[in-house]
Amino acid sequence: MSTKKHLKFDQQLVVEKPYPGDSQGAFLLSSSQLEMVLLRSAQHHELNAEVWFSAATAGPPGHVHGGCQAAVLDEVMGSTGWAHGYGVVAAKIDVAFMEMVPVLRQYSMRGRITSIDKRKIFIEAELFDKEKVYAKSTGLFIVLTKEQMDALGTNR
């Protein structure tokens, strides 16, 4: 895991990258544009995260680009699936942007599996701080078959 200069979190709760990914890193978990860490949750089928956005993530001046928000929410939803034993990929995600997100601040995120229907895993996530929820997402994720996992070169 890269050094997290801006994030404050309980090191004992850290979940290392739960999916195989590329050997060079993980899209957002190893980004130079933001800092992000996944954290265990005491709740069933849930995963927490902390994120800090650099000024380079801005879309509107001083605020995080909506695409960046969607990406971190997608990362948390997919990671939630993988962390709970489901090797998933996104089939569809929907994001609701509720408030503009100022850059250069730390935020919390939570991913939660809401239902499972054979290979379909429904997951939701939110980006928030102590005062408000900034964005919410819902997603349909599909569990990869053994053949698909093997084609990716995974050992899961």
Structure overview:
The chain has 156 residues and is of the alpha+beta class. It is built from two helices and seven strands, in the order E-E-E-H-E-E-E-E-H. The chain has helices spanning 66-83, 146-152, and strands at 14-15, 34-40, 46-53, 88-97, 106-117, 120-128, 133-143. It has a seven-stranded antiparallel sheet with strand order 1-2-3-5-6-7-4, covered by helices on one side. A hairpin with a 2-residue loop joins strand 5 (106-117) and strand 6. The two termini are 21 Å apart. The relative contact order is 0.18.
Q: Cα distance, first to last residue? A: 21 Å
For the largest beta-sheet, the strand count, sense and barrel status come to:
7 strands, antiparallel
Q: How are helices and strands ordered from N to C?
A: EEEHEEEEH
Overall geometry: globular
Structural class, by secondary structure, is alpha+beta
The proportion of strand residues reads 35-45%
> Biggest sheet: strands side by side, in what order?
1-2-3-5-6-7-4
- Overall pLDDT metric: 91
Radius of gyration: 15 Å
Number of strands: 7
Fraction of residues in helices?
10-25%
Number of helical segments with 4 or more residues:
2
Task: Name the poorly predicted regions.
Answer: none
